[in-house]
Write a structure and sequence with these properties.
By secondary structure, this protein is an alpha/beta fold.
């Protein structure tokens, strides 16, 4: 939801800001804008549309300043238009502001400012921010840097909602102030330059050293210096964290789209996520979790809470944790969990999954679980992300930066990590036979190779995509663990191909949805779990009799004449099968989107990181 980028240093800011915006465009892409500090005051160039349109604006070439802020927007308040684009300025044009998040009380603040003579040009919630800063700034006797800082702080204390904000001022041509609350913002630092961004990959080519701000911590930046303050404006110290990601990981590296690149990165992502934690010689090691046998024996329920694809990974996690640890697991959508008054207490262990670590609903659910006295574990792909700073304990997938809006390698890495966690719990609880544990470990170590083998389905999938890309409705079926993959396949297809699709537990179809099956409709089934295969095949027969076209993803030898297309993939144990069976479905969504000529990496209406509730 919106990307913000900032630069303060010795080089021209504009090219650096534009490059940052292009990298952040997956967070929102309906308008873009930039403001720099020039000799004659603040510049402001912005427009509706993608970053390319901004780049081609002739005014961009006139920007010389070495300090600037920029924004790419995912509209919340007010339609995409030049007026609603960021940056926004106060009435006196002393302050330029970019903002990611939502100001919930903006109407109230706008009314107050209007009563005080301020006027507004946009329908956005953001425009109250520069005017409110101006309002507080004017109240100060001395107009020094402390007054600037105090005005930004006073403004932020009035804001309800979420925000990551960058502010520059024509009166302080060497400074920038940044602050965040419940929205992401990182500060990259090198000797005489500071880079600010909504996420790490956008600025990884400049530095590996980052500062992470907690809620309502303020950073006052100069090119060589950064001073941090808490909300009382007392100076605080902050350490830097070194990020190991390779800068080229956020480039396409010859692939047409990030999504395809990320699909093909899955063997590496899984290998890195397993790391040295799994071996046949020793117990699975998550010592950072500090969980004892006594504690795990006291847990009477595990909640797994997440959104979208991360929630689907949670469903696969439920399957393995329940089977190995015999602890009931409930998987919940973060936005629902928060409002259901969930039964959570000190005997509940809550696991939160988020690739970005910045999903607003997941963070809010995590805060609630902590308040209820539960222990919390965050699973994220981004070191230092908000969710990892909120949770009691954090463990990481090591999938590398995921740029495409449609999540692929993060999902498979999450499923692997949840299997590892289940093994870790089971080994502590000492309730599972060592042969089973060793078998899961052996199969896990074989996954990268088996994923490579699964890629050989690419041509058949591409051909099938050509046959069905004009369909209006597609169904996905599966039983048990295969149903969780059906859900993920269906989500992937919806989000990047805009084809309506539904996923069902195969046995549930006859209880209603089968009424939708008509001649020629496509039904995609996952048949990995050998104990359920016969039952699912019977359900597929039911749709075939009603004229459905069928594609089956399986590791078993099926009667190929029965189905229109059979995608044979390597076999593994059911706990791990989603990691292989999802790959043909990822590729199918990708190639259908390509056939339709759509923007695979930036599907309409979506953003990579959903930082609004
Ligand atoms: C995945 O393809 C989606 N774009 C989306 O469902 C995503 O998984 C969800 O928004 C959660 O994101 P997170 O993992 O960063 O929290």
């Amino acid at each position: 939801m919106c990307g913000i980028v900032g630069y303060i240093g010795t080089k021209k800011a504009c090219p650096i800001l534009l490059a940052g915006l292009s990298r952040l465009e997956y967070r929102g892409y309906d308008s873009a804008g930039i403001s720099t500090i020039e000799k004659n005051g603040l510049s402001l160039v912005k427009d509706k549309g993608r970053v390319k349109i901004l780049e081609n604006n002739p005014a961009i070439n006139t920007l010389e300043g070495t300090i600037g802020i920029a924004h790419t927007r995912w509209a919340t308040h007010g339609k995409p238009s030049k007026e609603n684009s960021h940056p926004h300025q106060d009435n006196s044009k002393i302050f330029s502001v970019v903002h990611n998040g939502i100001i919930e009380n903006y109407q109230e603040l706008r009314n107050m400012l209007e009563k005080n003579g301020y006027t507004f040009l946009s329908q956005t919630d953001t425009e109250v921010i520069p005017n409110l800063i101006n309002y507080y700034y004017k109240k100060e006797q001395e107009h020094d840097i402390h007054a600037f800082l105090k005005a930004v702080r006073n403004c932020c204390l009035d804001l309800k909602g979420s925000f990551a904000i960058e502010v520059i001022s024509s009166e302080f041509p060497k400074n920038m102030i940044v602050v965040r609350k419940d929205s992401p913002l990182v500060i990259g630092t090198c000797e005489s330059e500071k880079y600010i961004s909504s996420d790490i990959p956008a600025i990884l080519s400049y530095t590996r050293d980052f500062y992470f701000l907690n809620d309502l911590e303020f950073a006052l930046l100069e090119n060589t210096n950064t001073t941090f303050f808490n909300s009382n404006l007392e100076e605080i110290n902050k350490p830097t964290s070194n990020i190991e990601w390779d800068a080229t990981a956020s480039e396409k590296n010859g692939y047409e789209d990030f999504m395809l690149k990320e699909i093909y990165e899955q063997p590496t992502a899984i290998r890195e996520t397993i790391g040295s934690k799994i071996s046949l010689e020793s117990k699975c090691d998550f010592e950072e979790l500090e969980l004892t046998k006594d504690y795990l024996e006291s847990v009477n329920k595990i909640y797994i809470i997440a959104c979208g694809t991360a929630m689907h990974a949670g469903l696969a996690g439920k399957n393995v944790i329940e089977k190995l640890c015999r602890i009931p697991v409930e998987v919940d959508i973060a936005s629902e969990f928060r409002y259901r008054n969930p039964i959570v207490n000190e005997k509940t262990l809550c696991i939160f999954i988020s690739q970005s670590g910045e999903t607003a609903d997941t963070i809010a659910a995590l805060k609630l679980a902590k308040l209820c006295g539960s222990r919390t574990i965050a699973i994220s792909n981004v070191i230092g992300s908000s969710i990892t700073r909120e949770a009691d304990y954090s463990i990481y997938t090591h999938a590398g930066p995921e740029i495409a809006v449609a999540s692929t390698k993060a999902y498979t890495s999450q499923v692997v990590l949840l299997n590892m966690l289940a093994l870790y719990f089971a080994e502590i609880l000492e309730i599972v036979d060592m042969d089973l544990i060793n078998n899961i470990k052996k199969e896990m170590l074989l996954l990268p190779k088996k994923i490579e083998e699964t890629f050989s389905c690419k041509n058949s999938i591409q051909e099938f995509a050509k046959k069905i890309y004009q369909e209006k409705d597609v169904f996905f079926l599966g039983r048990g663990i295969d149903e969780t993959v059906a859900k993920e396949g269906s989500l992937k297809l919806k989000e990047i191909s805009y084809i309506h699709s539904e996923s069902y537990a195969a046995g549930e179809l006859k209880h209603g949805p089968i009424a939708l099956i008509e001649n020629g409709i496509t039904v995609i089934s996952i048949l990995m779990d050998s104990s359920l295969i016969e039952k699912t095949i019977s359900n597929i027969q039911e749709v075939i009799s009603r004229g459905a076209k069928t594609l089956v993803v399986t590791s078993h030898d099926c009667n190929t004449t029965m189905f229109d297309e059979v995608i044979k993939i390597p076999d593994t144990i059911p706990y791990l099968s989603p990691i292989l069976s999802v790959i043909p479905l990822q590729l199918l969504a990708y190639y259908i989107s390509k056939e339709k000529g759509l923007d695979v990496d930036k599907p309409r209406n979506l953003a990579k990181s959903v930082t609004v509730e």
